[in-house]
UniProtKB/TrEMBL annotation:
This is Solute carrier family 35 member B4. It holds the Pfam family UAA. The chain crosses the membrane at residues 36-54, 66-84, 90-112, 124-142, 154-175, 196-217, 237-260, 294-321. InterPro entries: SCL35B1-4/HUT1. One of its GO terms (cellular component) is Golgi membrane. It comes from the Eukaryota. One of its GO terms (molecular function) is UDP-xylose transmembrane transporter activity. It is a multi-pass membrane protein. Belongs to the nucleotide-sugar transporter family. SLC35B subfamily. It is found in: Endomembrane system. Keywords: Membrane, Sugar transport, Transmembrane, Transmembrane helix, Transport.
């Protein structure tokens, strides 16, 4: 029952979160810092009450280690959301972040001296190829949609390249954080609830550096179209409602993944998260009518085949089928 409940949380929470994020960035493309701050504040408050017991519970992992992890986590979250300011469409954003397997493998080989099977290297090659196809096609769309002089077109393309560079940096930083987290868990044991709290609580002072930007977008949100909330009979600007839903769904998504990690194998978790990303992508394309060519579909297909190959899902299915045939033969 716990596994089914966790899967429902992941699909409902994470998919809804992507939808509300797109609603926010379509209206105000630069609101990423405000969205990130709201998510961090909500999860930190929840963790302070239920995990840290209002500060009375001592951390198992030393705070100094959390400071290092938090610096990386804060950087990744802010850079990922801020990249949406640079002509990065939501579908490309989702596909690019699916390339975390590549970054994990590269840094795993360099830092942890890991060695992988030929199947793993093939899967990474497929994921890389898929992302490359989608990125190149998106680059062509940026050039095609840039109206005006050649200089303006080149400026838009450079703007987009900065966004791609930001996503690449965030991808590698996220992988490095994962390796650091893995090393901490080996030394101190797994404490995901504690890590979730400190990862969202400790970075909060860092948002002071972004306070002017956050304040400006708070004003923009307050000036958005007011809507009547039925139950409480209050008129609230629509963007604040979208932000509230986004924050809640982000929490539901993270909680669902946490439950999955305690109930299932890492293979199952990866498969569920991969399928969730695929559904989010399809919904984003259909509902928001994001431009998506046949080449984009090909790139997406290659990315997800590579992901399934990496997680050995295809091998597991083949083994199960062979087992079924053997039983029938007997």
């Amino acid at each position: 029952m716990g596994t089914v409940f966790a899967i429902i949380l992941v699909f409902v929470g994470c998919c809804s979160n992507v939808v509300t994020l797109e609603l926010l960035v379509r209206e105000f493309p630069g609101c990423g810092n405000l969205v990130t701050f709201a998510q961090f504040l909500f999860i930190a408050l929840e963790g302070f009450i239920f995990e840290a017991n209002f500060g009375r519970k001592k951390a198992v992992i030393p705070i100094s280690n959390y400071v290092i992890m938090v610096t990386m986590f804060f950087t990744v979250s802010v850079v990922n959301n801020y990249a949406l300011n640079f002509n990065i469409a939501m579908p490309l954003h989702m596909i690019f972040r699916s390339g975390s397997l590549i970054a994990n493998m590269i840094l795993g080989v360099i830092i942890l001296k890991k060695r992988y099977s030929a199947e793993k290297y093939l899967s990474i090659a497929l994921v890389s190829a898929g992302i490359f196809i989608c990125t190149i096609m998106s680059a062509k769309q940026v050039n095609a949609s840039s109206e005006g002089s050649e200089e303006q077109s080149f400026s838009a393309f450079v703007h987009w390249l900065i966004g791609i560079a930001m996503l690449t940096f965030a991808l590698l930083m996220s992988a490095r954080m994962g390796i650091f987290q893995e090393m901490l868990y080996k030394q101190y044991g797994k404490h995901p609830k504690e890590a979730l709290f400190y990862n969202h609580c400790l970075p909060l002072p860092g948002f002071l550096l972004l306070s002017t930007d956050i304040y400006n977008y708070c004003n923009h949100f307050s000036q958005s179209t007011p809507v009547l909330v039925p139950v409480v009979e209050l008129t609230v600007p629509i963007m604040w409602i979208y932000l509230l839903i986004n924050v809640i769904t982000q929490y539901v998504c993270i909680r669902g993944v946490f439950i999955l990690t305690t109930e299932c194998t890492s293979l199952t978790v990866t498969l569920v998260v991969t399928l969730r990303k695929f559904l989010s992508l399809i919904f984003s394309i259909i509902y928001f009518q994001n431009p998506f060519t046949a080449w984009h579909w090909l790139g997406t297909f290659v990315v997800f085949v590579g992901t399934l190959l990496y997680t050995e899902v295809l091998s597991s299915i083949q083994a199960a089928l062979r087992g079924t045939k053997t039983k029938k033969a007997e």
